Amino acid sequence: MASNTALMGHLPSGLGICTTIPDILYVPELIFGGLVWILVACTYVMPHNPQGWVMCVSVFCFVMTFIWLVVFACGSHHNSSGWAAADFIYHGIAAFFYLSASVALAKVTLDMKSDPPSKDYKLDISAVVFSYVATLLYFVHTILSAIRWKSF
Question: Could you tell me which of 111, 110, 134 has the C-alpha nearest to residue 54?
Answer without folding.
Answer: 134
